[in-house]
Amino acid sequence: MSLGELDFIEALRAFATHPAARGLADDAAVLGDLVLTHDTIAEGVHFLPDDPPASVGWKLVAVNLSDLAAKGAEPLAALMSATICGDGVWERAFLSGVAAACEAFRLPLVGGDTIALPFGAPRVLGLTAIGRGGSVVPSRAGARPGDRLWLAGTLGDAAAGLALLKADARAEGMLVEAYRRPLPLLAAGQVLAPFAHAMMDISDGLLLDLARLIKASGCGARIDLDALPLTREFVGERGSGRAARLFAATGGDDYALLAALAPDLDPGLSLCLPSATIFGTIGTITAGDGIELFDAAGDVPLPERLGYEHHRPNPS
Amino acid sequence: MSLGELDFIEALRAFATHPAARGLADDAAVLGDLVLTHDTIAEGVHFLPDDPPASVGWKLVAVNLSDLAAKGAEPLAALMSATICGDGVWERAFLSGVAAACEAFRLPLVGGDTIALPFGAPRVLGLTAIGRGGSVVPSRAGARPGDRLWLAGTLGDAAAGLALLKADARAEGMLVEAYRRPLPLLAAGQVLAPFAHAMMDISDGLLLDLARLIKASGCGARIDLDALPLTREFVGERGSGRAARLFAATGGDDYALLAALAPDLDPGLSLCLPSATIFGTIGTITAGDGIELFDAAGDVPLPERLGYEHHRPNPS
After folding, report:
1. Interface contact B28-A76, CB threshold 8 A
2. Which of A283, B17, B51, B230 has the highest count of CB atoms within 10 angstroms of its CB?
3. Residues of the domain holding B35
4. Do A11 and A127 fall into the same domain?
5. What residue ranges in chain A does DSSP mark as E strands?
6. CB of B253 within 8 A of CB of B184?
7. What CATH number did the domain enclosing B121 receive?
8. Is residue B137 domain-resident?
9. Which residues on neighbouring strands pair with residue A78, listed in sequence order?
10. B124-132 and B198-202 strand pairing
């Protein structure tokens, strides 16, 4: 993040002091029972001109819904901001992806704005998603030493898919799909929220997002690399050794949910997660102030890069 | 509007079928008691690189709040999408204008997104404003033949200010301020909404916006040019003859409120508008299907250009 951006976000924080803003340090704003989030993506920054436009539309909706999932919120409506450059062919395909995701996740698109940009300007696409929170809307703060860390979803698929695409833009398959068409875990989020001391979605990499959670909660975490949930496709592509697991823990674009739950909570008894949800414990919250990693072979040094910091210079 | 844009908006309408979207033909979406609006502005399209950045920030907030005013809604919160290019100096000044408007209109900024764009890309700035509607949330449809058309606010100042700036980028004064720092008529909108058969804000020019209102309502309108509210500053700059009044009726950027009220309603008795609000009747709704203009000298032909169509290729 450049100095200009840091300055800007500092200045934003200085006046966005309403409690609903949660210090601009959470996945979403919480105003009464409303949960509000906005993500903007730009061509050349968050997606590439040769990415299939329908997948860009899908992803714009999905990443916003993942923020609602992290609050346990039910989606109510969305407003979209779209730019149009040139003949609009790309945008029509983009829109089909937006429509498919809105349909899949029952998100009514109720308004927004469409503006024409000069030819050659990068496309800038934004979505505001509005949801209704349940009885408890967890934040990133609130995890307590002794809590167990649970993960809904899997790690590494999207990052492995992106690596395949970087090697060959025509790559296909489940890993590429995971990168292009993430699935927000809305139902799991709604089930977990009332029990979660802290919860967030994993968008920039487990370790980077976990670092934010423990910083907000004022504690540390100890993670069992061997417990990270990997898919068969991921293991087929990258293996399941320590390097592969560190790759999965720092890859980003997972849109899994990370929740800190009380140690005596047995989710198998207490929670009724959708049957297809992959769900397991990956570690514990500690009284320390950083992340410790270990696997069957012993302690594992924390990698230098915890995730994709530059992907999200965003305040919310 | 290009074919690409028209196609795109047509495709948007095809799937934004939720009643809250109001056919993407209103100033805002209405979802339960929530009123939702989003406007995006781009450098080189809606503002110029040498416009004072603080005024761009003010205007972004004000135009969204004017959409809430047209629904009689009380502002609850906003989310902002901002791009950052280069060193962020422009953006810091922009943000000071956003903060000033949020402060002036008691609008908490609670979230959003900030993304870095490559150097040289046009800035794209968006705001989602969320408000709470009252017992009645008027739309553009609903005006009935016989209704009187009332206008809160004045016309022409902003267009006259823009003309001054085009002649001399260093121009100053009340008209330039009206262009740069419009004031959304939130209190007037809240007072008028329960009585309005139809209401909207005048952003693209009275005649163009009125044409939208009567199209949505399925009726016509007859406007007394002599009744248009002009400020002393406007008259000092452009006069008060027919040409000046047609300029004021097609200028745009007024952010006045246009309301169709029952003919037997006497706003002086029934309504309690803020004392500073300039408010008067400018015509009537007719059983026809177009706009008729007249002044003391007789009928006035409708000008070819009714307002700034290209300013707002937006669905909401």
Report:
1. no
2. A283
3. 3-132
4. yes
5. 29-31, 34-42, 74-84, 109-116, 124-132, 148-152, 198-202, 220-224, 256-261, 279-286, 291-295, 298-300
6. no
7. 3.30.1330.10
8. no
9. A109, A129
10. unpaired
| Pick among B2, B74, B81 to test the A interface (most A CBs inside 10 A) | B81
**Full-prediction pTM beyond 0.90?**
yes
**Residue A259 and residue A156 share a domain:** yes
Question: What are the CA-CA distances from residue A259 to residues A62, A70, A205, A245 (Å)?
Answer: 19, 9, 15, 20
The sign of the CA dihedral B15, A122, A49, A6 is negative
CA distance A153 to B123: 36
Given the cut 0.85, state whether the ipTM is greater than it: yes
- If asked whether residues A171 and A240 sit together in one domain, one would say yes
Cα separation, A109 vs A124, in Å, equals 18
How many domains is chain A partitioned into structurally?
2
A210 in the same domain as A182: yes
C-alpha dist (Å) from residue A195 to A135, A263, A271, B213, B240 = 10, 11, 9, 50, 67
Which residues of chain A have a CB within 8 Å of the CB of B126?
Answer: 40, 81, 113, 126
CATH code of residue A217: 3.90.650.10
Yes or no: say if B219 and B288 are a contact pair by the CB < 8 Å rule.
yes
Please say whether the beta carbons of B158 and B179 come within 8 A.
yes
Tokens (6 digits) for B92: 């810091």
Residue A57 counted as domain residue: yes
Same domain assignment for residues A158 and A305: yes
Reading chain B (316 residues) residue by residue, the pLDDT tens digits are 677 788 898 899 998 999 999 888 888 999 999 999 999 999 988 888 889 999 999 999 999 999 999 999 999 999 999 999 888 899 999 999 999 999 999 999 999 999 999 888 999 999 999 999 999 999 999 999 999 999 999 999 999 999 999 999 999 999 999 999 999 999 999 999 999 999 999 999 999 999 999 999 999 999 999 999 999 999 999 999 999 999 999 999 999 999 999 999 877 767 888 878 899 999 999 999 999 999 999 999 999 999 987 544 343 4
Q: Which residues of A touch B77 (CB under 8 A)?
A: 18, 20, 29, 31, 36
